[in-house]
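Let's inspect a concrete specimen:
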Amino acid sequence: MGWVSGLAIYFIIWWTSLFVILPLGQRSQADADDITLGTTHSAPAQHRMGRKLLQTTILACVVFAAFYVVTQVYGLSPDDFPKIIPGT
């Protein structure tokens, strides 16, 4: 795997991890009893994006490291799995 391919795969893993991390630990404005006029009641009370980005980066690094070990060290690829649909 080249560095461009690795970077592209890491970006996909990072972006997917972001959607996993975003809802964790969120409190809505209705839960916090602090509703700002002009916003919906389900909007986050405190978004803490810096913390979310750091958590996303850590999770993406762990997942990418596991992906790298499985594909590059052990050499497992999609071709190693049995074909489910005949003729493919």
